[in-house]
From TrEMBL:
It comes from the Eukaryota. SUPFAM superfamilies: Leukotriene A4 hydrolase N-terminal domain (SSF63737), Metalloproteases ('zincins'), catalytic domain (SSF55486). This is Uncharacterized protein. Transmembrane segments: none annotated.
Amino acid sequence: MEQFKGQPRLPKFAVPKRYDIRLKPDLAACKFAGSVAIDLDVVSETKFIVLNAAELSVTGAAVSFTPKASSQVLEPCKVDLIEQDQILVLEFGQTLPIGLGVLAIGFEGTLNDRMKGFYRSKYEHNGEKKNMAKSLAAYIKKHACSNAKTEDLWAALEEGSGEPVNKLMNSWTKQKGYPVVSVSIKDQKLEFEQTQFLSSGSQGDGQWIVPITLCCGSYEARKNFLLQDRSTSINADGAPSWIKISNKVARIAADATPELMDNIKQFFINLFQYSAEKLGWEPKQGESHLDAMLRGEILTALAVFGHEETLKEASRRFNAFLEDRNTPFLPPDTRR
């Protein structure tokens, strides 16, 4: 099996056609079991099958290959999971028959907290690590074979986290619009203020509970808090060289110098330009619906950031559209 180590690509003597994967997570124990049936096309003589795999437990008794041309079930004589290359190598005692077959594998693993593979949701709040999976497991167990309301889930998450989840979620699901959170620095303090954003442009009286994470001069020292009032202020920890503010659900509008904003706009223009040039303005034959959707989003983003060439081309195509509503110059997917 040494010949498969350190290779950048999987060997091509067996080609997967379809995966049928089943997973059974144990949220309380943070583990999972699963099985996969892979429709495999063996295209050249081989005793090996090599697959991508990482952090799984697989035994020879849980693996079999059944050629579709016969009812014979072949079991590997050796199973080797090479962690450094993240591959699973199966060695059989005889050469596999050319053609289609089904490779069946049973496996077990751990729900990790590294945002990798099949992972659990874990977060840190004020220095304390918390695991939402246990709260979900308790919720599922409590309401198994019975009816449950949305508030029952919020209550389970609130009990596990110690945070006002029910009140927080109601602020997001039971009113229209979105919050805009403005941030400014005054007297070594960060001042946060939230207002309601409505697409109509009018002002609203909505108020949200907004989870916010901020880093002052170091990614190692993070603060998490809930913005529950219309405005609040917190200490900026001296005079840090930089401050990063982010969250998962709210739109943050931070006060910045015009020069900094110009640099940010140029950064995103450079980021989107390659995709825009690749996608172009015109639909391409055989492209996926995702490409068609992405074209409109990318061109819109470039226009919003003030990319001069995009704005000129958009204006030209829009004028052509005004003169002839059937013109192909402005496809429906690019209209906003």
